[in-house]
Specification:
single chain, mainly alpha, 5 helices, flat
């Protein structure tokens, strides 16, 4: 489907490729075709080793993923080194100008006030409707 068509090398488990059987999956002799799929899917499964050249499921033993050997434990950095790295990273930050901070703060405060008034109005309206319905 989407990612497989772009040849991104995404492996799809065979169970997810199965689709519900329809009348077209049953041959004229009444045998159900379990591997009803298009050519592209068959080729992809053959490249991944899930299907043999004849289109039958590969019966080889399942491949186990090997984990890389753990390396030596990393040494902790000193507080001085930590502060140095933090400062060097903060130099790379694109800090906003004073005008941008003022403008963005104004937008946030305006939005906060509008939303607060909206929620207050809803709360007041619901309270009035409850008092009206139950005669409070």
């Amino acid at each position: 489907t989407g990612l497989q068509n772009r040849r991104l090398g995404v492996r799809v488990p065979p169970a997810l490729l199965a689709r519900p059987r329809t009348r077209t999956d049953v041959a004229d002799d009444g045998v159900v075709d379990d591997m009803a799929m298009n050519r592209q899917t068959k080729r992809m499964l053959q490249r991944q080793g899930e299907l043999g050249p004849d289109g039958e499921p590969a019966r080889g033993k399942p491949r186990q993923q090997t984990r890389p050997a753990p390396g030596p434990p990393k040494e902790r950095t000193s507080p001085k080194q930590y502060v140095h790295e933090v400062r060097s990273e903060l130099r790379k930050v694109a800090w906003p100008t004073r005008a941008e901070v003022i403008r963005y703060s104004g937008i946030v405060l305006f939005t906060l006030i509008i939303l607060t008034l909206f929620i207050f109005a809803l709360d007041w309206a619901f309270a009035q409707s409850v008092f009206f319905l139950f005669g409070g």
